[in-house]
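The methods section describes the discrete structure representation at length, but only in general terms. Since the whole study asks how a given chain folds, the encoding of that fold should be made plain. An entry of this sort, consisting of the sequence and the corresponding backbone structure tokens, reads as follows:

. . .
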Amino acid sequence: MAKLVARVYSEALFEFALEADKIDSINEDFQLVRDSFVTTKEFFELYQSPKLSTEERKAIINEVFRDGISTELKNFLSILLDKQRAGSVLDIHEAFMKRVDVHKGIVEATVKSAAPLSDQIEKELTRKLEEMTHKEIRLRTQVDPELIGGLYIKVGDQVLDGSMKNRLEHIKESLKHIIV
């Protein structure tokens, strides 16, 4: 249910932003709101709190983000309060970001390695993945010592597992099938 709510509200915001030609500005404003909620948990709790009236929470949002975000996004946050969907705002933000990425042709790639990658390797890997997918890549790296070596790459739904851990598991499986 939460994902459905996030998708419906994020799609409505995206369609508005697209029609108003404000995708980038609303995206930046929404990121600021998200960051504010994540870094200041008390603020997010206040935004969601049923102990305050909807009007009091709207006034807080208007005061905190007075000149920091667009009127359109403040209105959107107010609608979430009116519809009692304030608790879904972070999920809505995530769904909105994914929708913007699809619109802009950006694909997220997750790369896991046993040790941190150098900037040069990250740039080269990004370039190669962009060549392979014909899309802009947003690279996220993670260190996973259990991989032993090599890389585990996930681009969209596609997985390229060139890790030593995976290779060793394949060898282990092959050895199980050898008849002595």
